Amino acid sequence: MKVIIYDSECKFCTRFSKWSQSNIETLEIISVRSKEARKILRDKGIKFIDLQTIYYVNNNEVWVRSKAIFEILANFTSPWRFISFFSFLPTFFTDFCYKIFAKYRYYF
């Protein structure tokens, strides 16, 4: 089971999720505000659900924020797959960049 849980009120997030789904055949996309998303995340041990965060669930693992983006893009073909190679960077740095982008995502 591969699932992106995203903010459906954000046009950028929605486009990214639908674009990802068109590139990954077995991918589901679910709004973070749905009951199904809350159930999936709580079953995976996430008690606080941040509406400004993307979650990527692949079987028993959950990735959040920048690590979720890297894991999603790792399923793509080139050239987008190359972005996932930056996952070696420290999470505090990549999540910092993610949070800045998330703060202004409605402008994109």
UniProtKB/TrEMBL annotation:
Stored InterPro entries: DCC1-like (IPR007263), DCC_oxidoreductase (IPR052927)
Transferase among keywords: no
Record keywords: Membrane, Transmembrane, Transmembrane helix
TM stretches of this protein: 82-101
Presence of the UniProt keyword Secreted in the record: no
Pfam families named among the record's database cross-references: DCC1-like
Highest taxon of source: Bacteria
PANTHER family: DUF393 DOMAIN-CONTAINING PROTEIN, THIOL-DISULFIDE OXIDOREDUCTASE DCC
Protein name: DUF393 domain-containing protein
Natural source organism: Chryseobacterium culicis
Lineage of the organism: Bacteria, Pseudomonadati, Bacteroidota, Flavobacteriia, Flavobacteriales
